[in-house]
Design goal:
Number of domains: 2
CATH superfamily of the largest domain: Type I PLP-dependent aspartate aminotransferase-like (Major domain)
Order of helices and strands: EHHHHHHEHEHEHEHHHHHH
Number of helices: 15
Distance between the termini: 82 Å
Shape: elongated
Strand order of the largest sheet: 1-5-4-2-3
Structural class: alpha/beta
Oligomer: single chain
Radius of gyration: 31 Å
CATH architecture of the largest domain: 3-Layer(aba) Sandwich
Strand content: 5-15%
Largest sheet: 5 strands, parallel
Length: about 350
């Protein structure tokens, strides 16, 4: 994939490009203009060409956050606030030392030369620089639609054409259709993975095969900033799923053993009850009730602890969900179903046993 680039690779090779940007003043000024927004809520202002800045300044009420511009409605995290306060005493200084330290750490982590690293306030300047470097009037850039539009919309401002390929019915990038859209005028194929704003992720093997084929025709730009942001959380999610399955399996084994032991201890009681007229359902309820009560008590104890732990964990994310009560209710219901399914086989076996066999020694 010699003709494939990513945001990380752009950082590595961006020093040369950054050196040439001062000579492209007029183009850069044109590219850095805020993109026009012609959404439904502002369609009556489409002719006026409202930009993000116009929306923020002219809206009837102050906007809490412009979600289309990736603004965080929750504000900075407590850790970020603390870091800002700690840095205030030296905020009047230029950050030469800190940026040099950051560059050194990136160089060590990525195993590249410090001279090939360019720092920017956000990724937008680098994405726009890529548009300036690769695109020109008469050529085109291919991307999904909708996707993060900074690079392809910047390409339109320098005279290139943006070929928009609709997403699949699952709101994922349609790699096959994107490959078909590549023609002799295509110089760049832009892929945002996970896609912004749909959040869908392209399968790694399919993406690699796509890049190997398409990079022979045009440069492939992989924007994976969001993908690398939560790599550790994705690994934790997988491990949590595996360990949860193992824990549930072990609990079911323990519960099954406890039911077998209880049924064996109460076999004569069950026989007497059946002789006196107890049916299978009542005996099954007798054996199941005590275990379901224990599961319910465990649910009552675990739910507030799980809610506290989950909310505390979510505070570390810029964009997060609010955990609703029905999630815990559903988890408790599923726990009851799993417990009932585990004990039902042995409980039914004991309830349907012939009482003569259990009482023949009496």
């Amino acid at each position: 994939m010699g003709n494939t680039i990513s945001r990380r690779k752009l950082l590595r090779t961006g020093a040369l490009l950054a050196g040439g940007l001062p000579f492209a003043g007029s183009l850069l000024k044109k590219v850095q203009a805020a993109p026009s927004v012609t959404g439904t809520a502002f369609s009556h202002h489409a002719e006026a060409g409202w930009t993000e800045r116009d929306i923020a300044l002219r809206s009837a009420e102050p906007l809490k956050a412009r979600l289309f511009a990736n603004e965080n409605p929750f504000g900075p995290s407590e850790a970020a606030k603390k870091a800002i306060v700690e840095t205030l005493p030296v905020s009047y200084q230029y950050p030469f030392r800190t940026t040099d330290d950051l560059t050194g750490r990136i160089s060590t982590f990525e195993k590249i030369d410090k001279g090939n690293i360019v720092l920017a306030a956000g990724s937008s300047p680098l994405l726009r620089a890529a548009a300036l470097a690769y695109l020109r009037p008469g050529c085109n850039v291919v991307s999904g639609d909708p996707t993060y539009a900074d690079l392809p919309s910047s390409a339109e401002r320098v005279g290139a054409r943006w070929v928009k390929v609709p997403l699949t019915k699952d709101f994922a990038l349609d790699l096959d259709a994107m490959e078909k859209a590549v023609d002799e005028n295509t110089v760049l194929v832009y892929i945002c993975n996970p896609n912004n704003p749909t959040g869908t992720v392209v399968d790694t093997s399919k993406l690699r095969a796509f890049c190997e084929r398409v990079s022979k025709k045009a440069a492939v730009f992989l924007d994976e900033a969001y993908n690398s942001l939560y790599t550790s959380e994705q690994m934790i999610n997988k491990l949590a799923g595996y360990f949860a399955f193992i824990a549930i399996f072990i609990c079911c084994l323990g519960l099954l053993g406890l039911v077998m032991f209880t049924a064996e201890q109460r076999i004569k009681e069950i026989g007497i009850r059946k002789v006196l007229g107890a049916n299978t359902a009542s005996v099954f309820g007798l054996l199941s009730k005590d275990f379901l009560v224990l599961v319910f008590i465990a649910f009552v104890i675990a739910s507030p602890l799980a809610w506290w732990a989950a909310n505390n964990w979510l505070t570390g994310f810029a964009y997060r969900i609010h955990i609703s009560w029905w999630i815990f209710l559903l988890a408790g219901f599923l726990a009851m179903i799993i417990a009932l399914a585990t004990i039902s086989v042995q409980a039914l076996k004991a309830a349907m046993a012939n009482p003569v066999k259990s009482l023949r020694t009496e």
